Every structure is written in C-alpha cells, then in structure tokens.
Amino acid sequence: EIVLTQSPATLSLSPGEGATLSCRASQSVSAYLAWYQQKPGQAPRLLIYDATNRATGIPARFSGSGSGTDFTLTISSLEPEDFAVYYCQHRSSWPLTFGGGTKVEIK
Amino acid sequence: EVQLLESGGDLVQPGGSLRLSCAASGFTFSNYAMTWVRQAPGKGLEWVSSITDSGSSTKSADTVKGRFTISRDNSKNILYLQMNSLRDEDTAVYYCAKAYRDDRYSFDLWGQGTLVTVSS
C-alpha cells in the first residue's frame, strides 16, 4: 500500500497570503496524484488531477506540481473561501489511498 | 443537472446489513468507473471500493473485503454498496464518486454523502 504523507497538518495564514501544501508518497506514483478541497459538512471537490491539471472551474490561483514521490499544491493568494481541508490521493495502484489532510486556517 | 444522490444510510446494529444506493443523472453513467469513499466522524477520507464502467471488475479495500460488495445497474444509472457484517468502525459518511475520465480513478463528481451509524 502506498502511504501519502501530507505536511504540514495545519497551516495558519491570512487572506492574500500564498500557501504551499506538500504530499509525499512512500513510493513513486508517477503523475497519478490528485488534490481535493473539503469544507465542513460538504463533499470533497476535485482541484487538481494527474499532478498538474486543474479540474473544470477551478481558479488559476490553484496549481499543482511534482512527480514520483513529491508533490505540491500551491495557492497563490488565499481568498476567504479557500480556508478548508486539502487532501491528496493517488491512483497509481490498488489500493487507492488518500493523505491525512492539511487544514488551512485563518490566522 | 449533473449529480449523484446517495441514499440508504441508517442506524444499524453490529453484525447487521445495509444497502446504499447512488443515483446518477446528467451524464452517461455507463461510460465511467465509480467508487465509494467513506469518512469517519472527524477523520480523513478512506477509499472503500471501485467498479469499472461495465461492472465487469471491482476492487475493494482490505478493511471491507468479503463484507462489502459494490455493483451497478447501468440501465437504471444506479451504483450500489451492499454492506454485510457491519462493525462499529464502519460508522462513517459514505460518498459515491465518479471517475474524472472513463476508468481513471480520481473523482470529479461527488454525492452529498449518506451517514451509516453502526451501534448497539
């Protein structure tokens, strides 16, 4: 099983600041990594698929990078609606796994 | 409107059974693999089970293998999760999710979730 480790667990930032979230895989997942955003009481929302591709309707301030074992989700300038929990997920092999999440909170 | 709508969640005793349904609309259901993902209260996301577009192949997490069965009816646009021998640790919100492209297992459409509570 591929373990995805997200860091930091919590990121305290102010609106307008940039955010950098990390996801590290225990073995290579090539580029088969996605990022999701989840707000309280809501289903997750796909942000990035295959490491670098923004999903339909996702603002350009969200970008993904990386391949192999190290991945980054960058939010260039936080909007109030971006404060949420973010998860990474690989589809490289079975079982599919998710990272433990990074909470982006208002400082 | 493109959407997924889960139903069937309930309070059930340990050892009991439940069947979840996920009704799809607004897209060609039979063209996409589908998946169940769960989230225990206050916890992260956990993959449960996936099924190919045709229903010919399924995969399940070790934690549910032999107890849960995923299936689909492409004539009715419905995804199912039959849950048997339920345990306390199966308590979670269960989401159905659509593959973003044919059988590529990242998920661009999610239902609102249905709560399964296993407790005596």
Distance linking N and C termini of chain B: 39 Å
Into which percentage range does the β-strand content of chain B fall? over 45%
**Count of DSSP strands of chain A:** 11
The chain pair with the largest interface is: A-B, 23 and 21 residues
Rough outline of chain A: globular
Task: List its traits.
heterodimer, A: about 110 residues, mainly beta, seven-stranded mixed beta sheet, four-stranded antiparallel beta sheet, B: about 120 residues
Walkthrough of the structure:
The complex is a heterodimer of chains A (107) and B (120). By secondary structure, chain A is an all-beta fold. Chain A contains no helices and eleven strands. Chain A is globular and about 35 Å long. Chain A starts with a strand and ends with a strand. In chain B, 0% of the residues lie in helices and 54% in strands. In chain B, a hairpin with a 5-residue loop joins strand 4 and strand 5. The radius of gyration of chain B is 13 Å and the shape is globular. The model of chain B has no long low-confidence stretch (mean pLDDT 97). The chains are: A mainly beta (107), B mainly beta (120).
